[in-house]
Amino acid sequence: MKLTFIGADHEVTGSCHCLGVRDKTLLIDCGMEQGVDKFENQELPVQAGDVDYVLLTHAHIDHSGLLPLLYARGFRGKIFTTPASRDLCEIMLRDSAHIQMFEAEWRNRKAKRAGRDEYVPLYTMEDAEGVLELFVPCEYEEIVPICDGVTARFSDVGHLLGSASIKIWMEEDGVTRTIVFSGDIGNSNQPLIKDPKLLREADYVVMESTYGNRSHSESPDYVGDLAKIIDTTLARGGNVVIPSFAVGRTQELLYFIRKIKQDRLVASRPDFEVYLDSPLAIEATGIFTKNMASCFDEEAMRLVEQGINPICFPGLKLSVTGDDSRRINTDKTPKVIISASGMCEAGRIRHHLKHNLWRPECTVLFVGYQAVGTLGRSLLEGTKEVRLFGEGIEVRAEVRRLDGISGHADREGLLEWIGAFKKKPVVFVVHGEDSVCDEFTRTLTELGYQAEAPYSGSTYELKAGVCMRAAEPVKKIRRTKQVQTTVYERLVAAGKRLMTVITHNEGGANKDLAKFADQINSLCDKWDR
Prior knowledge:
Rossmann fold; Metallo-beta-lactamase, Chain A; alpha/beta; 35% helix; eight-stranded mixed sheet; single chain
């Protein structure tokens, strides 16, 4: 029973952990690094084609985003996750592939003019569609047999629709151990989705620590605060432009606005229109509606039982096509515009900012974290001018932030979650900034836990409870969003997968093996140079 740490170790994104039980290899998450990360991630200890299973905590790209790349490199095993996570991955992985291919096309237009080498996307739409065929949906609290010696159970962790903590039972050489992967632990009392389910028993816990050194403010009056901002802005003839993350945060906003409209809290324009201008957000909203029964909390379900859709209301306009999006800014009626991306780094939101930032009657309202170096962060910090589509735009609109909205538990929420275990487990602290991982580890140690924050590449033997390799941090020499995959690397991955398939056919019928060998030799004859 070996546990190897691969990604989101002393960092917040790129979650990936590798578990070896008997002769099987399992990954828990396979996420993409996003934004600026400090350390290099180690490679998987096996080839992609030798990974047998993936267990996915939730659909966010920093947990799921490299699944198509794993597929491109030869993975053909099963991916276990909740039905809602599978549904969200259906749109999010396709969207990620589209972005990869669009960026490659854009770069190659420039590269061709400059005589540079072709840029190859990290993965393609075919890779995304291929990996989606490998998903196996698992209901919350269902005991799922993974393979000989391994069973698992997914429990609602309240972070995103379909998000889960995963408890795994392992048996090897007559020894049994249990390990829980927390996933991203949700904030309590969020709209729509349930609070995190508390677990009671485990030998080991791999635990996130995103907000492990800070506390959220007391729960604000989201509906009242949002209504005031909308009312004030519409009354002066402006638009409220909300950059929002397409999956999760957008649906929470729709929930708040439905309540605002129901209670007629916007006196200046009680029947104001709301434009949802993000194809991804529109698809995600449909998936939220589809998964109401299994994922919504009691308050939301009471509305459903009354025949009310908690995230739909009169005056909600869905903008799908580019023409739909452009028409929003030709209509001068004051309105609310919700669009992605949440940090204003790409997508349709940048067009809406171009048309509204220079207007003093408008408001740009941020409802999520803005990373350092993003346009959203720059606006919040008071920049007076930005460049959009090659044009300088003066910032005259009011820039506001709706405080308190967070999908992650704070320090107190994390301690409540780990404190629910009857017997203190050994805790591995992950998924937090470098200093936060260390600080939260110290907090747990002071509370009597055996806790540590491993770096990428560290390996532990879980039967004996010993560290086999304590990896040292390797700082990145240069910081990039994501390393591309070359065509040659895809070819090498295909060759490694071929060896895996050959190994799997050991002991087969001689006739079949001879046919297989002839096919390989024929292929080699064609390409041997």
